[in-house]
Structures are given as C-alpha cells and as structure tokens.
Amino acid sequence: MIQRIQSFYLFLVAALVLSMLFMPLAGYSNADGNWQFWAMGVYTMADPAQMVLPAWPIAILIALMGLLACISIFLYKNRILQMKFCLFNGLMLLAFYPIFFLYLWVNGKSLAATSSLAAALVIPLVAVILEYMAYRKINQDEQLVRSADRIR
C-alpha cells in the first residue's frame, strides 16, 4: 500500500493539510493591537488563549480535506473510487481559497484592521499539485490493470 508512489503523495497531502490546523494563516493589525488568524479562529497576540472571532468552518474544511486524503490512501484496491476521492479532494483544496479569503475579508472588516497573509497559505496549492500527481499515478495503474485484463 505505502510502497506505491501515489500513496506517498496522498500521505504528504494529508500531513501538509493537517499541519495547517497548527499554523497561523494570516494576521491582522491596527493601532489597537495585533491578531492572528488560525484555523479555529482569530486570536489576540497579547493573550493567545483569547479567541476574538471563531472560524470553525475553516477548521472543519481543513480537517475534512486531511481526512479525505487519509481515506484515499486505503482505497488502493478500488482505484476508480480512489481517483474520485482525489478529484473531490483537489476541488475542496481549490475551494478553500475563496472561503478563506471571504473569512479574511469579513474578519478584517469587523476588526477594522489590515490583513497580511502567512506562508501556510501555500500548502493547499502544493497539496493540489500532489493530488494531481497521485491521480495520474493511480490512472496509470488502472490502465496497466486494464491492459493486462485484455491480454487474458
């Protein structure tokens, strides 16, 4: 299972996406103070335990994307379903950006602060590329099995 390169790609996707739960995604600042936007919500820099604005849908989306990548690793016996999971997860990774920027804009308006993006926002883009590479390898395996079935 993990010997296949696509399983390694999917494992990297799961690890990268789930690591976003523990990284700041953006920051806000104005004259009153500084805040950080994490997956769970917006926290003040002065007291990191104090949540100012919740963002649970972002955390749920990130956890769901990581879970789908983990599940698709173990679907190696059903390659067609594994390819569908890869496509769906890739679409969810791309849908993360508009949802995140909507939250970024709404939270910036409610805090009356300017926002700055963090490096963790590159992770979904890297994950989409890895999902595509896994999809191609799974498709190659499926084509190889189909060609072997035609020979029999």
Give the low-pLDDT segments: none
- Looking at CATH, which topology would you report? Butyryl-CoA Dehydrogenase, subunit A, domain 3
What is the correct CATH architecture? Up-down Bundle
Structural domain tally: 1
Number of helices: 4
Task: Describe the largest sheet.
Answer: 5 strands, antiparallel
Shape: elongated
Strand content: 5-15%
Structural class: alpha+beta
Radius of gyration: 19 Å
Strand order, main sheet: write it out.
4-3-2-1-5
CATH class designation: Mainly Alpha
Transmembrane segments: 55-76, 85-105, 111-130
Pfam families: DUF4293
InterPro entries: DUF4293
Keywords: Membrane, Transmembrane, Transmembrane helix
Structure, explained:
Keywords: Membrane, Transmembrane, Transmembrane helix. Pfam families: DUF4293. The chain crosses the membrane at residues 55-76, 85-105, 111-130. InterPro entries: DUF4293. By secondary structure, the chain is an alpha+beta fold. The protein has a single domain (5-151), classed as Up-down Bundle (Butyryl-CoA Dehydrogenase, subunit A, domain 3), CATH 1.20.140. Helix content is 62%, strand content 14%. It has helices spanning 5-19, 56-73, 79-111, 123-151; strands at 26-30, 33-37, 41-44, 51-54, 114-117. The protein has a 5-stranded antiparallel beta sheet. Helix 1 runs antiparallel to helix 2 (56-73) and helix 2 runs antiparallel to helix 3 (79-111). The longest helix is centred in the middle third of the chain and has 33 residues, at 79-111. It starts with a helix and ends with a helix.
